[in-house]
Queue: 2 jobs
Job 1
Amino acid sequence: MDATTVLASVSGSIATVGYGLAAIGPAIGVGIVVGKTIEGVARQPELAGRLQVLMWIGIAFTEALAFIGIATAFIFGY
């Protein structure tokens, strides 16, 4: 068994591995957004409502990266 045979057998799951790696970025991003919102509410509780709205918008934009990652996996993987 040579290197090209091994590469050919692994290439079927490259899209799955790629999406798994692409999901790490949005997960870290959501953690940062939520953490910073909690810090902001702790500093100024009267802004909790506005910060929560901004947090949900930030989470939506961050999760859009995950959707782009899964779409890319389907486009280039199959």
Note: The CA atoms of residues 33 and 46 lie 19 Å apart.
Job 2
Amino acid sequence: MVTATDRSAVGFVLSGGEAHDSSEGTALLDKIIRVPEQKYILMDRAYEGENMRRKTMEKGYFPVVPPKSNRKDPWEYDRERYKQRNEIERYFLRLKRFRKIFTRYDKLDVLFCGFIYFAMIVDAI
């Protein structure tokens, strides 16, 4: 999921429970239209791979993601700006207030996505 703030989402994609999120993250990044005011993109460590970081820089963003602890060539990142990533986690927590989302009883992805959209609308009101 890509969020603009802790109250609004830009977009999301569902991935399989056994699949790694980075492949879906690059696909989602392709769908985002960059606004000139947006300079940084805050990412979880799951997205710290070279391909994802390169893709964000190609789109004109500066990636703010800490390197994994076992990385041979770690990079510097803005630690203060990275603290804002908790807004994304707060957005997920608000969506998980809906029992149907956190338990995922729906078998079809289309129904599950529909309820996520519904929860986003209700949360925005």
Note: The chain has six helices and four strands.
